[in-house]
Amino acid sequence: MRKVIAFIMVITFVLAAHYSTASTAGKPLDVSGWESLKWGMTGDEVKAAFGKDIKVHKPREDSQENAYSDIELSDLEIGGVPLRASLWMDSGTKTLRKIVFVPKNTAEGYGWAETFIKLEESLASKYGPPDVENTSNDPGTSADRKWHFPSTDIELSYLRLDGTEMLLLIFSGKDEDAG
Fold it and tell me: Which of 146, 149, 172, 123 is CA-nearest to residue 25?
């Protein structure tokens, strides 16, 4: 129990220190994708942008979102965190719509909670403070941060349930009508 309380105190201190400096970071007017990947790129354009780092696999379908993923990037880092990313294409236009990042390695204890903080710091330094911050009243169980831009939504989510942790970072392109 003392370890959990100490961990919560450390996270609280890190977040307080982070937000005292991150709030001064400038927020870009818009974000049109992630790195060299831009919303609306075709699969061939995505492959050209990342070359040999792209892995092509059997398509996975998401019929609810009318999207599919058959391209993955497996050797990425954001804020020093090793990640892999699934690139989701619009089923109708066959263009890039969403990028879903997950940690590449496994974590022990509260490893993903610490990783969440690293990613949040990196994102805040680049995109400014999050527009939406939700943290569970039961520390270490869930947290969600969102940044909204005219062309892109960025969502960082952490969930710990029954000892199992999940961490996702999602960059989503907005429909032109929703812009």
Answer: 123
